[in-house]
Specification:
Elements lengths: L1 H28 L8 H13 L14 E4 L14 H11 L10 H16 L7 H12 L5 H12 L6 E2 L9 H12 L3 E9 H8 L9 E10 L18 E9 L4 H10 L6 E4 L5 H8 L7 E6 L10 H13 L3 E4 H4 L9 E2 L7
Parallel strand pairs: 1-3, 1-6, 3-4, 6-7, 7-8
Antiparallel strand pairs: 2-9, 4-5
């Protein structure tokens, strides 16, 4: 009998060890496109800790909120510049239905973008807002479905400076594994971007992010038959649809990201991902969470072989982010691939 009990104990103990090992292995198995690196270890250790009911740091599912910046965090800040900048340039200069109709402010914004791309000329001070107002004008009058189709059609075009990829495919594949892992661990993941909310919704729909989980730049909307009547005085009819106006509500950068998270989510995130100073406010909001253990990550573009990057600048930023208490993800050292092995950099065609 004693021998049987001893054997049973060994079997149960071994099974426990096996299950524990399987649990650890299961977490790491989500990340096939990552190297063995500190940033990934930190992420897994954090998530395993706060999802363990026996841990003093346990966070219930309802409060497992993760927020991600988009451009440069999990979607390429593709050369020559942001997707929404390129879309505006296309709208003003190439769209046969709009060419010649742009306002002076739209033309000025596109000229600045072209000079930045072709000559490396610095964008004007405050260009985030210059672009935002110009973009609001450029797409005014489009219904939401028309604008969604417009974005998706442009996104199907090949990415300048790369082969083997469209804009619609330009996700950092290792970061998509982060979404999969967090979803499996009971997190709700939100995209909190400076780009137009409806542009972002169109781009991330292919990676199964619900439209309700996208927060971005916003313009006012109105009903097609509303005219100049205030929304509070107009009743939406069965014949109406919503259209974009040229009135900007908010450019979702820096502290505006914090305000929008508070208003739209209603909870402080416990996990945040970004890549620039525009995301620092969101990180600080997360790390000031007095209720739960929290963690923030900054991605640095230090890989000049697989993407367009300034490694020297990126490494300096990496040190700055570490000093600020953020975890740093190196695209060069931590990612086995960025866009996929079939995607290659090419020399850009010089403009005539």
């Amino acid at each position: 009998m004693k021998q049987f009990e001893k054997s049973l104990f060994i079997m149960v103990f071994s099974a426990g060890i096996f299950l524990l090992a399987g649990c650890v292995k299961n977490s790491r198995s989500y990340f096939t496109l990552w190297n063995d690196c500190d940033s990934l270890k930190t992420l897994i250790q954090y998530v395993e800790d706060i999802t363990d009911e026996k841990s003093e740091n346990f966070i219930p599912k309802k409060d497992r909120i993760a927020t991600f910046d988009m451009d440069g965090t999990f979607l390429g800040e593709l050369y020559p510049t942001y997707f929404e900048y390129l879309l505006l340039e296309h709208r003003v200069l190439e769209d046969p239905d709009y060419k010649g109709k742009a306002s002076e402010s739209e033309i000025a914004a596109v000229t600045a973008i072209k000079d930045f791309i072709s000559q490396g000329k610095a964008l004007p001070s405050g260009f985030d807002m210059i672009h935002a107002h110009a973009a609001a004008k450029a797409y005014a009058g489009m219904t939401l479905s028309e604008f969604d189709s417009y974005v998706r059609k442009y996104a199907e075009g090949p990415v300048e400076g790369f082969t083997g990829m469209t804009y619609a495919q330009s996700f950092y594949k290792p970061m998509l594994e982060v979404f999969d892992y967090l979803n499996a661990k009971g997190f709700t993941c939100y995209v909190v971007t400076g780009s137009d909310r409806f542009i972002a919704r169109a781009l991330v729909s292919s990676i199964n992010i619900d439209p309700s989980c996208v927060i971005g730049m916003d313009v006012k909307l109105k009903a097609t038959n509303q005219g100049e009547t205030a929304g509070v005085n107009y009743t939406f009819t069965k014949e109406d649809t919503l259209i974009r106006t040229d009135e900007l509500i908010i450019k979702n950068l820096k502290t505006n990201k914090v305000k929008q998270i508070a208003q739209e989510i209603g909870k402080v995130p416990v996990l945040t991902f970004g890549n620039s100073g525009g995301d620092a406010a969101m990180h600080n909001y997360c790390l000031s969470n007095n209720k739960y253990k929290s963690c923030s990550f900054m991605l640095i573009a230090d890989d000049a072989e697989r993407d367009y990057a300034n490694p020297e600048k990126a490494l300096k930023l990496g040190e700055k982010w570490k000093d600020s208490g953020y975890q740093v993800i190196s695209m060069k050292n931590d990612f086995k691939t960025i866009y996929g092995e079939n995607v290659k950099l090419t020399k850009l065609v010089e403009e005539e």
